[in-house]
Amino acid sequence: MKRLLAPAVAAATLLVAGCAPMVTQSPGEGLSPVNAVSDGEDKHLMLFGHDVVSYFTDGRHQAGSPAIKSVYKGVTFRFASAEHKKLFDAAPDKYIPQYGGYCANGIVYGIPWGGDANTWTMIDGKLYIFGGSGSRDAFLLDPKANVALANKYWSEEVNGSNAFWQRSKRMVLRVPHYKSGQELADAVAKAKAAGK
């Protein structure tokens, strides 16, 4: 009996552990999915609590304070200052990262995953977050084409979906233009060697 219970308990544990991000990243009030975590009373905390306004006003990322925050469409945003909160509250859509704060290069492939607050760029006054410098460098090889692809997959598949299921689907059913991490790294290395 114990031998039968152990696999069942392990499977149930994995299922429950997988449910937390499914709920946290899909608040379902207009900003879903989002690169969010649960932190104390903040059940859908955007970008690990980093101040989204700082990218625009200070040209850098910085942590927000749990004491200075706003909730917009079910997602909590923290700010480094009351002034940043005021700016956000006046025009939230201006400051929200593209693609729910997920790695923009992942969204090119229909995969909502990753997104580090310290790896980012601005394109045409919009904030794009990346899973690391390799992802950012690959995206910037052709930003116009990659923004177009990311916008397509975001609007047609990802926006309003459950991040876990969308990610699972696109990890198995790859988009036609899919490139592996190694292929992207090789393309970046080639471009850097050519001085681009």
Structure description:
With 196 residues, the protein is an alpha+beta fold. It has two domains: 32-91, no CATH class; 97-196, no CATH class. The protein has helices at 2-24, 52-57, 82-90, 92-95, 104-107, 133-139, 143-158, 163-172, 181-193, and strands at residues 36-39, 42-46, 65-72, 75-79, 116-123, 126-130. The strands form three sheets. It has a two-stranded antiparallel ribbon. A two-stranded antiparallel ribbon has the order 3-4. The protein starts with a helix and ends with a helix.
Descriptive tags:
single chain; 196 residues; alpha+beta; two-stranded antiparallel ribbon; two-stranded antiparallel sheet; globular
The helicity comes to: 40-55%
- Mean pLDDT equals 89
- What sort of overall outline do the alpha carbons produce when their principal axes are compared? globular
Radius of gyration: 18 Å
Give the topology.
Blueprint (H helix, E strand, L loop, with lengths): L1 H23 L11 E4 L2 E5 L5 H6 L7 E8 L2 E5 L2 H9 L1 H4 L8 H4 L8 E8 L2 E5 L2 H7 L3 H16 L4 H10 L8 H13 L3
Antiparallel strand pairs: 1-2, 3-4, 5-6
Please outline what is shown here:
This protein is α+β, with helices and mostly antiparallel strands.
